[in-house]
Write a structure and sequence with these properties.
single chain; alpha/beta; 10 strands; 7 helices; 3-stranded antiparallel sheet
């Protein structure tokens, strides 16, 4: 990423610093997580560490990855026994093929243009083991009646500039378009809330489960 992007995401992380607050969206995947209890989990785009905190408190080993140093410092400060790694998702992921049983990408895949999004998801598929799983959430277009008026200028189809950063809105058709590299794919639209400033009000998100054979 360019230096401007680094500054932008570091500023984003600073605004959200503090003890990570998680919701319990991963509860429904308890059986799936337990199947991979001996695998290292990659929390990709971990932000301030909400899902990392959840996973570690439930006994899983996690590597928390983000581009913003302030986000990683927050994880180290507030999540015991955490391991962090600086990763720029817009480039090739610095992990071997077939190396992870679970990748969690929670609210971290909807900030990129079309080609970059496709590349990131393909990279996730590459680093998953055979039988591995992606667990992801992305923002649904169902939150908005008129995104141009409610968010900002449209950069490309379903991708809008908010003022500080860009956001992609996903609809049903986008799920197969972007996540079709997985041999088996499930998704559902749900409402999420979390006791923090950004998600205190209910927001529609797509939950995505992608399996690699």
């Amino acid at each position: 990423m360019e230096d401007g992007s680094y500054t932008m995401w570091n500023n984003w992380a600073k605004k959200r610093s503090g003890v990570p607050v998680f919701d319990n969206w991963l509860d429904k995947y308890e059986d799936l997580l337990k199947e991979h209890k001996d695998d290292l989990i990659l929390d990709l785009g971990c932000g301030n560490g909400a899902d990392t905190k959840y996973l570690i408190e439930h006994g899983y080993d996690v590597i928390s990855c983000d581009f913003a140093d302030d986000a990683l410092e927050n994880v180290k400060q507030f999540v015991k026994n955490s391991t962090v790694k600086k990763v720029d998702m817009t480039k090739e992921l610095p992990f071997d093929d077939d190396s992870y049983g679970i990748v969690v990408a929670d609210l971290s895949l909807h900030y990129f243009d079309f080609e970059t999004t496709k590349k990131i998801i393909s990279e996730i598929q590459r680093i998953l083991k055979s039988g591995g799983v992606l667990l992801a959430r992305v923002v649904s277009s169902g939150n908005y009646q008129n995104p141009i008026e409610e968010i900002g200028n449209e950069i490309e189809k379903n991708y809008y500039w908010e003022g500080d950063y860009a956001k992609r809105l996903f609809n049903e058709g986008d799920i197969d378009k972007f996540f079709g590299v997985f041999s088996e794919l499930r998704h559902e639209e749900n409402e999420m809330t979390r006791d923090d400033d950004e998600y205190r009000q209910p927001r529609k998100v797509f939950e995505i489960v992608g399996y690699k054979k």
